[in-house]
Design brief:
single chain; mainly alpha; two-stranded antiparallel ribbon
Length: 220
């Protein structure tokens, strides 16, 4: 268990730089957002603002973990400690020749369920960690939009999860990261589970979730 917690904390550590930037932008943009809502006679309550802020920070953290070369943010965060001596920021990015060489493995990348079977058959800790991690990190993609915006449906969660994952996998091909169709399957599953979690919360606390929507000014 301590190994799992340690790996999770390591990923959270890598999310912090972009999360910090996202928090600053969220606070800077909030007055403008409030004025635009007021012009439409709407108000966003404290609970909605907290949930929206968490979702923005999560999206920034997800971008930090997926849209940049592996371990780049560990290098940035640990630079002040004198680690990675002789390593430059740009050395994490592959050359064009290395990117083109990845085309040789395109068939393997586009073969569904290959990596999922390998993880389940081997029961390797790291492969299982990545399998469940790919599901878990997309649960908020399905949960928070349904919580924050009215009219969200399961197919929207599926579409958002699938398109977001496809965009990530496409970008990862050009930054030296592993690209795999199984990641899209797992990510989309996570988004659907997130929407299912929202439906469960709505069934258990139907009235409470209304606090996470914008409300007309007259109701406040």
């Amino acid at each position: 268990m301590s190994v799992v917690v340690g790996d999770i904390l390591r990923y959270i550590w890598q999310m912090l730089p972009l999360c910090t930037v996202a928090m600053a932008l969220f606070l800077l943009c909030r007055p403008l957002r409030m004025r635009r809502l007021a012009a439409r006679r709407l108000v966003s309550g404290l609970q909605r603002e907290i949930a929206l802020c968490i979702f923005v920070l999560f999206c920034a953290g997800l971008a930090a973990l997926t849209l940049f070369p592996a371990n780049l943010w560990s290098y940035v965060m640990d630079l002040g400690r004198g680690w990675h001596e002789g390593t430059s920021f740009f050395s994490f990015y592959p050359t064009w020749e290395e990117t083109l060489a990845g085309l040789d493995y395109l068939d393997n990348m586009l073969t569904p369920l290959q990596e999922i079977r390998r993880a389940l058959n081997s029961m390797s800790y790291w492969l299982m960690f990545m399998l469940w991690g790919n599901i878990a990190m997309f649960v908020p993609i399905g949960f928070f939009p349904a919580l924050l915006w009215r009219g969200w449906r399961w197919w929207k969660a599926l579409l958002l999860g699938c398109l977001t994952s496809c965009a990530i996998e496409f970008i990862q091909f050009f930054i030296g990261r592993s690209t795999d169709i199984d990641d899209v399957i797992l990510n989309t599953t996570g988004a659907l589970l997130g929407y299912g979690l929202f439906r469960l919360c709505r069934a258990l606390c139907p009235g409470a979730l209304a606090r996470f929507h914008c409300r007309p000014t007259e109701e406040c």
